[in-house]
From TrEMBL:
Subcellular location: Cell projection, Ruffle membrane; Cytoplasm; Mitochondrion inner membrane; Mitochondrion intermembrane space
Organism whose genome encodes this protein: Macaca mulatta (Rhesus macaque)
Lineage, uppermost ranks: Eukaryota, Metazoa, Chordata, Craniata, Vertebrata
UniProt EC number: 3.1.2.2
Name of the protein: Acyl-coenzyme A thioesterase THEM4
SUPFAM superfamilies, per database record: Thioesterase/thiol ester dehydrase-isomerase
Domain of life: Eukaryota
Position of the signal peptide: none
GO molecular function, a single term: long-chain fatty acyl-CoA hydrolase activity
Keyword Membrane in annotation: yes
Length: 209
């Protein structure tokens, strides 16, 4: 299946679709209300990274080293978390508070993310944690990469349930951004996972390749 059409590329996938359950829709509405006064904002999400963002990462990742994937290969790429049809994999939306330096991800794990029978795969949970804390660091400091991610799994997450991934920028030391998070049930009574992370802000004058 090709996702190269302009319509699919530009579609925002962080808005409700028929696969979202009532918990996800309710939380979405609650956070959208918080966005009305400007204290929070919803982050759009697409199947592919927008062209201007790709250029940012080229500049910061490569520095003076011009090696990169070919343009024809880039035209076939898509984000891992947006590579499933609606409802089958990662259904999520992120909200960011610049004042609080907080990122909240509302996540519903579909049936194609199964690990233990009836539960979300630990790798899928790690993917969403990394995506959430990484976006928190990016919003606070610009282009960053993961240096360390440490996750403590407390309880398995049932498939097709909704969880809140709450992340917080804890401190900044030079180019290091320290972000922590927890994964909780909608009623905040169940703690599924906790994580700490370190992200490095990239220097465009230096190459990682």
């Amino acid at each position: 299946r090709s996702f190269s059409s302009e319509e699919v590329i530009l579609k925002d996938y962080s808005v409700p679709n028929p696969s979202w359950n009532k918990d996800l829709r309710l939380l979405f509405d609650q956070f959208m209300e918080k966005c009305e006064d400007g204290s929070w904002k919803r982050l759009p999400s697409y199947k592919r990274i927008p062209a201007e963002k790709i250029q940012d990462f080229k500049t910061h990742l490569l520095g003076r080293n011009p090696k990169f994937v070919k343009e024809e290969q880039l035209s076939q790429t898509q984000l891992f978390t947006r590579s499933f049809d609606d409802g089958l994999g990662f259904e999520y939306v992120m909200f960011y508070s610049d004042v609080e330096k907080r990122m909240v991800c509302l996540f519903q794990g579909g049936p194609y993310l199964e690990g233990p029978p009836g539960f979300v795969h630990g790798g899928a949970i790690a993917t969403m944690i990394d995506s959430t804390v990484g976006m928190c660091a990016l919003m606070a400091g610009g282009v960053v990469v993961t240096a360390n991610l440490n996750i403590n799994y407390k309880r398995p997450i049932p498939l097709c349930s909704v969880v809140m991934i709450n992340s917080q920028l804890d401190k900044v030391e030079g180019r290091k951004f320290f972000v922590s998070c927890n994964v909780q049930s909608v009623d905040e009574k169940t703690l599924y996972s906790e994580a700490t992370s370190i992200f490095i802000k990239l220097n465009p004058a230096k190459s990682l390749t």
